Every structure is written in C-alpha cells, then in structure tokens.
Amino acid sequence: MRTTVGIIGGGPAGLLLARLLHRAGVDCVVLERRTREYVERRQRAGMLEQGTVNALREAGAAERLDAEGLVHQGIELRFDRERHHIDFPGLTGGRTVTIYAQTEIVKDLVALQLADGPPLLFEAAALAVEGPRSEAPVVRFLHQGRERTLTCDWVAGCDGFHGVSRRAFPAGTCRSYAHEYPYSWLGVMAEVPPSCEELIYARGDRGFALHSMRSPSVSRFYLQVPNGTDPGDWADSRVWDELDARFAIDADWTLRRGPITAKSVTAMRSHVHEPMRHGRLLLAGDAAHIVPPTGAKGLNLAVSDIRVLARALTALHRTGESQLLDTYSELCLQRVWQATRFSDDMTRMLHAQPNGDAFDHRMQLARLRRVIASRHAAAELAANYAGLPLPV
Ligand code: APR
Ligand code: PHB
Predict the structure, then answer these.
(1) Model confidence at 391: pLDDT above 90
(2) Ligand 2: residue whose CA is nearest its atom 4
(3) Is 160 left (phi over 0), alpha (psi -120 to 50) or beta?
(4) What is the atom index within ligand 2 of the atom nearest the CA of 47?
(5) Is the shortest distance between the CB of 140 and ligand 1 below 6 Å?
(6) Domains in the chain with CATH codes
(7) What ligand is nearest to the CA atom of residue 346?
(8) What angle do CA 238, 241, 247 make, to 5 degrees?
(9) Whose alpha carbon is nearest atom 32 of ligand 1?
C-alpha cells in the first residue's frame, strides 16, 4: 500500500487528522490496532475547550456535538465546606467550555470516516516505522494475520502513550520528561442525573473528588485513591459514602445516588517527549505527551496538535510551503508545556499529599483562597482551563 500520510492510531488525534486531510484533498490511511467496538466503548474524559469544538466543526464532525453537548459557563471549587463558582465568560471575555464525551467524538469520527473517508483499518497493528529520515518512510503492520507495509510521504504517530511511533526516534535525537504522581483516580459512571450544573472540583482532607457528567441522565465521578488501588475493593455503597464525605458543604446540597455501571482506576502522570518530529515522522496527542486529568487538557492538547499538523501538511500539499511543518514541534511544545504546568498546578492544589504535613495543607488552602480572593488569580485559572489561544 502507498499513501501520502500514513496515520498510526484511530483515537481522536488520528481520526480527526484523517478528516481534516480528507477535506483538504490530501490522501491518507489510518491504521488502528483495536476493533471498532473497542475504540467506541473506551471511556475517557469529556471536557472540550472552545478551540476543540471549533476544530470538530471545521472537520464537519460536530453535528451531534452541537445538538447534545452541554455548554458550561464555569466550574465550582469546593474546600473547607464552602463552594465557589469560577465564572469563565466573565473572566475570559466570553469563553465557555462544552461537555461531550470523547467516546462520542470517536463514534462520530469513525462513522464519517467509514462513510466517505480514506481507508480506516481496524485490527491493523503497526509494528515499526522504518526510515523516518528517508524520502519514503515505511510503516510495517499486522493485518488479518499477515504482515504488510504502508509506504508514505509522511507518517503521523497518533498511537497514544503505549504506541510504537516514539520508538522510531533513535537514541540521542530525543528526550523525555516524566513525573508520576503519588495517587490515582477511581473513575465511576452512574445512571443518575448530575447533582450539579457545573463540574465540581473538591479538595478535602480525605482527598480530591470530581463531579462531572456525560448527559442530563448520566453522572461521572472521580475519587483520589492510592496508587495500586483495585476497583474491586470499592463496593458501590463505599463509593457513594466517600463522595458524600468529600463533597460535603455547610450549605443545603445533596448528592443523588443511582446505579453504578463502571469503575476503573487511572494512574496520574506527566510525560513530554521532545521533539515531536524526526524527519518525516510527526507525533501528535498522547503519543507525544500525557498530562494528569485534573485540568482536562489531554484531549484538547491532542486536537490542538492536529490542527497545526493538518494545516502544515495541507500547506505543503497545496503550495509546497514547508515552513509550518518545520516549526510544528516547537509550536506545539510551547502549548504542551503550558498545559503541563497548568495540569500540575491544579493537581497539586487539589489532591491530598499522601505524606504531606500541616504546612503543605496550609499552602494548598492558601492557593485556593487566592483563586477566590483575587480576580487576577481566578482569571489566570479560567484562561488556562477554557484554553489558551491556539498556535495557528
Ligand atoms: N498500531 C495501531 N494503532 C495503535 C498502536 C499501534 N501499534 N498502538 C496504539 N494504537 C491506537 C490505540 O488503540 C488508540 O486507539 O492508537 C490510538 C491512540 O488513541 P488515544 O490513546 O486516545 O490517544 P490520542 O488519539 O492522542 O487522544 C488524545 O488524550 O488524555 C487523552 O483521553 C485523552 O485519549 C485522549 C488523548
Ligand atoms: C470527565 O468528564 O471525564 C472529566 C472532566 C474534567 C476533568 C477530568 C475528567 O478534569
């Protein structure tokens, strides 16, 4: 097989790139290791910046998002049994965020791709990217029990944190920066209407809790738990009692309970791989960077990489101009590091430190009080959460 852009990975990054390239008349092929059912069922985050919504509209993939997405005007912070609203439009000059599950984005993109897009192969696992510095790099992959090759002008490594693309960078050409946090998140899906209108980020002595949602009838919760936690140790009643305790405030508020349909544990880590380009191989999304989910930046960063990459490849295709491709890594990494910093700040401000002392505790409260007391500090949080300007 031969194509202009070989895309490894059919997550939101790879699928969105395929849509944008297809609309620009650039030929591509997507290789996805898993089955369609698996990628459409995988539960991930669901908070979209305005720039992400715009990018999906630009790709012609926002019909259901526009009909079903829940537009939020801010978030709520809870600590010391108090609640505080952070008003995004008021603090950012009118920006909002939208709740729409990543799983739904993947379903929308897969349907479009299979209807009129370039090839999307499921159960096609890339084994290696060969000759990334040559004129025609090759992706070796396994499909239907046979080893095959895809020869490309460019390869987009959109294969997530556990993919193979990063391995094609020879030693000495790249560097990774990593940090593991000393706690994880227990994620819980419940068939119950949300008990709030906006997401609640709660900091308490028992640990962090987040109340999010998927729709007017489905709630999503997260609890800070120790690393290595087995979700099987969390009976439904224990989950609800712990959420009750962590969201407790002095005002009148009750958490609605309902049937829990899924529980899973996710580690919290930051990881940045530099640079994001080696020859004709370009990394995007989780393949290049991971942030802890507290700032809801993972998906948004992936989409911002893809916007730059799609523009760069389109410019090259239309005019032969390579300037944007040459600055791809640098442009994306500036935004990646700002999102990593913001996600790290939010994470440290809101989680109980396992071995923290009374001083650490006071510092966290002082940071939270500053966000509430200072319009300047609140505006800084809102600007980062709602999304810094896109690089292009
Ligand atoms: N060959 C083909 N496909 C692969 C391979 C491989 N060797 N390895 C991984 N993949 C596929 C995975 O099965 C997955 O579908 O690549 C895809 C990567 O998708 P994601 O992990 O969702 O990553 P990405 O598309 O970058 O999406 C952005 O940011 O914080 C997160 O939750 C957010 O998952 C979202 C991500
Ligand atoms: C989610 O809805 O899954 C979600 C929302 C906000 C976050 C993380 C996850 O910060």
Answers:
(1) no
(2) 45
(3) left
(4) 5
(5) no
(6) 2-72+99-178+269-353 (3.50.50.60)
(7) 2
(8) 135
(9) 44
